[in-house]
Amino acid sequence: MRLQEYLDRKGSKWKTTTVARLRCLAGYDGDPDAGPAGAQSRMVHNIWNEMRLRCAVWRGLCEGLRNAPEEPADVHVAVTQWARTPGSALAGPPVDRPTTCVYATCVTKWRFCTWLRKQGLPFATQAEAENWVNRLLDQPDVVSHRQELEDVLLKRFLMWATFDPDDHTCDPRSSLPATANSVRACLGLATCDEDDDLLVICYTLPTRVVARFPVVTTACASTPWAEYWAPADPGEPWGWTQPWPNTNQARRPEVVHECITGATLALPLCEIWP
């Protein structure tokens, strides 16, 4: 369901407030956490174009906007809180993929090491965490990587992932660009981490975990909001990345799912450089 359809059912009072708050947000570029100039107007466009959310999720947005002051920063906070409400960020419908599908997700080495420390791994400093990751990267067998990471969540909130659409058991890295910045451009990752090393993590999903379409709540749950993202067109079998403009990178399949541990790693972690 689209937001416009939901508002048509609710009546003019809800519509007036929601439209006014979103118009206010569309002109907001004053906070670094909100993303680069133009990011807010693009996300408002995506909110109106999103068609894969249920009534209950749209109701949460409208209620949050109704209670928010008509100030851009407050509306931005209200939308982010809506997106982070339990169940909202992963509210997209399931994507039909075989259980043996190999997925790939990417994260900067610095962010990964920071996340390891936040999970309580015994590293007194960031340098200790990086040295541990470097030693792990030197081990060529995936069994060692699984053993070290089997109880470690690979990311903090949720995981965006890509895969090979033609061969679900194929190593997704084989069709990714060769450099970290090209991978960022291909996957539409945040430009704020440009020129940092990337870790590529390949895995299968545990049977209890469902791959889903990324929806606008997924994009708004991050900080900053996903800079390059748009809802998939009707009839698409999964989401698609939105590559950086003027980079000549081809789009790739894209899904999201809840965070998992390294217990189902399919390949050793891999580091690529800018």
Features:
three-stranded antiparallel β-sheet, 10 helices, 274 residues, alpha+beta
Write the layout of secondary structure elements.
Layout lengths: L2 H8 L1 H15 L12 H11 L5 H13 L4 H13 L18 E6 H10 L7 H12 L4 H8 L8 E4 L18 H8 L10 E6 L12 H5 L18 E2 L12 E6 L11 E3 L2
Antiparallel strand pairs: 1-3, 2-5, 3-6, 4-5
Walk me through what this model shows:
With 274 residues, the protein is an alpha+beta fold. It folds into 2 domains: 3-84, no CATH class; 103-272, no CATH class. The chain is 38% helix and 10% strand. The protein has 10 helices and 6 strands; from the N terminus they run αααααβαααβαβαβββ. It has helices at residues 3-10, 12-26, 39-49, 55-67, 72-84, 109-118, 126-137, 142-149, 180-187, 216-220, and strands at 103-108, 158-161, 198-203, 239-240, 253-258, 270-272. The strands form 2 sheets. It has a 3-stranded antiparallel β-sheet with strand order 1-3-6. A 3-stranded antiparallel β-sheet has the order 2-5-4, with no helix packed on it. It is globular.
